[in-house]
Amino acid sequence: MRRRESITLAVIILIASVAGWIVWPDNPGIHATVFDRDIDIDFRVVEGLDLQGGLQVLLEADPAPGQELTPETMNAARSVIEQRINAFGTTEPVIQLQGQRRIVVEMPGVKTPGERERAVKLFGETGLLEFVDTGSTSPTPGRPLEPGKYPTVLTGKNVDASAVSVTFDQRNTPQVAFGWDAEGARTFGDYTEKNVGKYLTIVLDGVVLSAPRINSRIEDRGVITGRFSLAEAKDIVTKLKYGALPVPVKVVQQREIGATLGQDSVDRSIMAGAVGLGVVLAYMLIYYRLPGFIAGLALVIYSLLSFAAFKNPWAPVTLTLAGIAGFILSIGMAVDANILIFERMKEELRLGRTLGAAIEAGFNRAWDSIRDSNFSTLITCAILYYFGSGLIRGFALTLALGVVVSMFTAIVVTRTFLRLLLSTGVARMPALFGVGGVAVPVEPAKRAPSRPDPNGFLPAAN
Predict the structure, then answer these.
(1) If DSSP codes are grouped into helix, strand and coil, which group holds residue 321?
(2) What is the DSSP track for 144-171?
(3) What does DSSP say about strands 165-168 and 174-179: parallel, antiparallel, or unpaired?
(4) CATH number of 3-26+260-433
(5) According to CATH, where is 3.30.1360.200 located in the chain?
(6) Is the separation of the CB atoms in 88 and 70 below 8 Å?
(7) Cβ-count burial of 255 within 10 angstroms (0-12 exposed, 13-18 middle, 19+ buried)?
(8) pLDDT digits over 105-127, tens only?
(9) What pLDDT is attached to residue 15?
(10) Contact 129, 207 (CB under 8 A)
(11) Lowest CB count within 10 Å: 29, 68, 102, 345, which one?
């Protein structure tokens, strides 16, 4: 074995071992404490709405008297709701307009009563933040404030979204830090300077969050405190970051929906993937013999790497029926590169090339076709992901990920395995390469350089 191939093989084995450990169904994850810092990493499969079920909510616009409801307003409302749901942490949500005044929201995995209540409050409430001058009156937090009784100083539209975050006070109680834009800072500074000693009540969707007393002039930054939990503080931050809904909405229907496929359909999909993998392996082994066996090993490594990428804890891929279809399709596409390479190799062997020369020529001459075909597929996936939504994006993402991983396994893994064959006697048997009747030439042995005779004569030729 040459040193470079040995190192590459060791890296491939290490990567495949780690991927196999991640893919293992009973994987415990990583849970440790390093330098007084807890590390908790779980490797799990994230399933979409069609595989695991979730929450479905039907919202209807409820405009104020005299407010015009336009398609642009409904599209803006849908966009705000989508941004809030993405911040909630749900993967592959579906947010669609239905008719002229309704929005359908589907969130996978939201099943417990607490999760459902929090989710509906997050995207169903208007999210209108108001700073109200209540003078010498200190309203009770958690209770609604009578509309129109007190003047509003500022609203959330003047809040700087980049300056909104969750912080903690000295007692480790969550609070919301915020900042103003230029206009808001000027208005807020002038108001607080003139109203020292009075109460400025902070109201969200008509409910009092807190009523702090003004002690001095405040300009560009402030803190909202109140009787809310960490999750509630995060939801307030989400609403402030993405703004209020352009039109109030009300919940018309809320229900928990089951998986549309069911366990039987999931099992059938897994069986389809296993059968597809088996058929591809059998075809490669029968037609390409030894190189086909090597391609099969690379394909197994490809499957491990792809599924491990799906389960990564930082940006997991949500598996839906369309995503599974994309993965199964990529299994067949993963051997395209190997077929191009092996056919080039067979051509070179038939011309009398040595195995080493045939391997290098096969990879070099097939690379342009492999690159162009895979890049074309990636461009198509990018278009589907950018313009599509929901299930279409899942299909595009799993297919693109499969194409990228297949390029690694075809170019690096298969090439390394074939190069390692050069030092074995098996590599010289023509039947193992599907070129029966053609002898595979032996690699020429390297001869030591000839040394001149001490008497000045050149060595005789053999």
Answers:
(1) helix
(2) BPPTTSS-EEEEGGGB-GGG-EEEE-TT
(3) antiparallel
(4) 1.20.1640.10
(5) 54-257
(6) no
(7) exposed
(8) 888 877 778 888 888 887 777 77
(9) 93
(10) no
(11) 68
Q: Please give the Cα distance from 121 to 110 (Å, whole number).
A: 13
* Torsion angles phi and psi, residue 228, rounded to 5: -130, 155
CA distance linking residue 429 with residue 349, whole number of Å? 12
Residue carrying the six token digits 């010498």? 136
Give the alpha-carbon dihedral of 306, 307, 310, 312, to 10 degrees: -100
Cβ atoms of 85 and 123 closer than 8 Å: yes
* Residue 284 neighbours by CB distance under 10 Å: 22
How buried is 194 (Cβ within 10 angstroms: 0-12 exposed, 13-18 middle, 19+ buried)? exposed
What does 347-398 look like in DSSP terms, one character per residue?
HHHHTT--HHHHHHHHHHHHHHHHHHHHHHHHHHHHHHHHH--THHHHHHHH
**Strand 46-47 relative to strand 318-319: parallel, antiparallel, unpaired?**
parallel
Q: Which amino acid is at 20?
A: G
Domain with CATH 1.20.1640.10 in the chain: 3-26+260-433
**CA distance linking residue 351 with residue 334, whole number of Å:** 28
Written as one string, the DSSP assignment of 435-452 is -TTS--PPPPPPPPPP--
- What average pLDDT does the segment 255-266 reach? 69
Count the Cβ atoms, other than its own, within 10 Å of residue 168.
12
| Model confidence pTM above 0.85 | no
- What gap in Å lies between CA 121 and CA 232, rounded to an integer? 10
232-236, 248-252, 396-400: least confident range: 232-236
What would the two tokens of residue 115 be? Answer: 């999760």
Alpha helices in 209-261 (DSSP H): 230-242
User: Token pair of 13, please?
Assistant: 């084995």
